[in-house]
Write a structure and sequence with these properties.
Blueprint (H helix, E strand, L loop, with lengths): L3 H7 L2 E7 L4 H19 L4 E7 L4 H6 L7 E6 L2 E4 L6 H12 L4 E3 L2 H10 L2 E6 L6 H12 L5 E4 L2 H6 L6 E6 L5 E3 L6 H11 L4 E3 L2 H9 L4 E7 L7 H10 L7 E6 L6 H6 L9 E6 L5 E3 L8 H12 L21 E4 L4 H5 L5 E7 L4 H16 L6 E7 L12 E2 L1 E5 L7 E3 L5 H9 L19 H13 L5 E2 L1
Parallel strand pairs: 1-2, 5-7, 6-7, 10-12, 11-12, 15-17, 16-17
Antiparallel strand pairs: 1-3, 3-4, 6-8, 8-9, 11-13, 13-14, 16-19, 18-21, 19-20
Helix pairs in contact: 2-4, 10-12
Length: 476
């Protein structure tokens, strides 16, 4: 053991995991992180792996902007960059080798090539008679920009014959689905990236902690999700799901989520699903503020799935918005209860400033805010110019209001179409000053980052902040 500052100074290439002893995701990472370290050590690599208890080395954690656990950073000659690949041993090793070595490994013979193809789940090989040709340069350029897949480049005639390559080209080898895919068409960087993106993952992929980075970090931002407790690949639903997926390579990721795993309960809730309503599918577009879509039927045949996805892609199927029925006593208390069905009527009332807390029942920070929010409601009870309200955003959605972290607080000012995000102090005095100044932008505070439907970082940050007594959003 040596101090982290000394290690960063001493080693040219150093991967550092900043962890907390109580962090569940950090504990789950241990075997994969250690396996990656062992693999590199066996290869006599000069890349080193380290870990730091950020709850003890607080100055160091602050220096490197550690805000959640685990945070993983790569130091090259003391300069840090964010680690951006998956969390398996193979992901770590491949990413580190790409960052410290050539973009594509030169393959000398058939044995080299076979060994490389056998070693990893996905490998991309460029076959170029002239390693300095224009095509080879495009291949190397693309290889340099993809961190989590190993690339090899071959010029030897015997390697061409072994893999039935009559001319220059690119082949993606994989240990699933078809086993390999040959690149077709004009060899441009954009075309090659699209080809790799569309073929580098299984046609259907399970949502897990290990796969989350690849799912969210990939170029495909439209995701179809199958919620099921039967993940047997030979089940009728899974076979239909895989059959449908083949039509949408590179356009839509087909993901399945095991509802038997309690860790996935929050994702079910995010899509307004109960276990008893599964198996079921939902589609989400991450590039469009996480717009969700729901099929009209529960038909999970391949044809029905294809029809649903095509309908979303061509715009004939509209976004699905969850809503509860309006409670009979929605306006009985100082804090008014909003749902999808009465939101516009109340929040868009042009005669009042309406301050809404969008919350989740499981959100720890929402629970902390609840007594303050109730006091705020009491302060403005009877004031016909101000309304204090709340909406359960796990059960209700509004078309032009996107909520991705909790609590989210927004003001809908009177006589205005503008919506003001409140990110100031969550105190009675802070809210009161903001409202008394007419939902003043100057008192609204700076905007905060939000996250996607992967809940893990939010949970980690919540635990971290509670440990330190701080304050943050609960993220989905």
């Amino acid at each position: 053991q040596i101090h982290i500052d000394k290690a960063i100074e001493e080693f040219e290439f150093l991967l550092v995991e900043f962890y907390a002893p109580w962090c569940g995701h950090c504990k789950a990472l241990v075997p994969e992180y250690e396996k990656a370290a062992d693999t590199l050590a066996e290869e006599n690599s000069n890349i080193k792996l380290a870990k730091v208890d950020a709850t003890k080395e607080t100055k160091c954690a602050s220096k490197y902007e550690v805000r959640g656990y685990p945070t993983i950073k790569f130091f090259r000659s003391g300069k840090p960059v964010e680690y951006s690949a998956g969390r398996t041993a193979t992901d770590f090793v491949n990413w580190l080798k790409k960052k410290t070595g050539p973009a594509a490994t030169t393959l000398q013979n058939k044995e080299d090539t076979a060994a490389m193809i056998e070693k990893d789940e996905v490998v991309v090989v460029g076959f170029f008679k002239d390693a300095n040709s224009d095509g080879a340069k495009v291949f190397t350029e693309v290889a340099a920009g993809i961190d989590d897949i190993p690339f090899g480049i071959a010029s030897d005639t015997d390697i061409f014959k072994e893999h039935e390559m009559d001319s220059d080209g690119v082949m993606l080898f994989k240990k699933f689905d078809e086993g390999k895919n040959k690149f077709e068409g004009e060899l441009t960087a954009e075309n090659l990236k699209t080809f790799i993106s569309g073929n580098q993952m299984p046609s259907i992929i399970e949502f897990t902690q290990e796969s989350a980075q690849k799912i969210f970090g990939g170029d495909v931002k439209t995701h179809l999700l199958l919620f099921t407790d039967n993940v047997d690949k030979e089940s009728e639903n899974m076979k239909s799901y895989k059959e449908a997926a083949t039509d949408f390579k590179g356009k839509v990721l087909f993901i399945y989520i095991n509802t038997g795993d309690e860790d996935n309960a929050r994702i079910l809730e995010f899509f307004g699903l109960k276990k008893e309503e599964t198996p079921a599918v939902r589609l989400i577009k991450l590039e469009e503020d996480m717009t969700k879509f729901k099929p009209e039927t529960n038909d999970l045949t391949a044809d029905a799935l294809k029809s649903f996805v095509n309908g979303v892609l061509d715009g004939t199927i509209k976004a699905h918005l969850m809503t509860e029925d309006v409670p009979a006593d929605w306006d009985a208390k100082p804090v008014k209860v909003l749902v999808g069905k009465n939101f516009v009527e109340v929040a868009k009332n042009k005669d009042q400033d309406v301050l809404v807390e969008f919350y989740a029942p499981w959100c720890g920070h929402c629970k902390q805010l609840a007594p303050i929010w109730d006091q705020l409601g009491e302060k403005y009870e009877g004031n016909d110019k101000v309304v204090i309200a709340k909406m359960d955003s796990t059960a209700n959605e509004v078309e032009d209001v996107k909520v991705q972290s909790f609590p989210t607080i927004k003001c809908f000012p009177k006589n205005s179409e503008e919506v003001i995000d409140y990110n100031g102090e969550r105190t009675l005095d802070g809210f009161k000053k903001f409202l008394d100044a007419g939902c003043s932008k100057e008192l609204a505070g700076a905007s905060q980052e939000e996250d996607d439907y992967d809940e893990e970082e939010g949970e980690e940050e919540e635990e971290e902040e509670e440990e330190e007594g701080g304050d943050t959003h609960d993220e989905l």
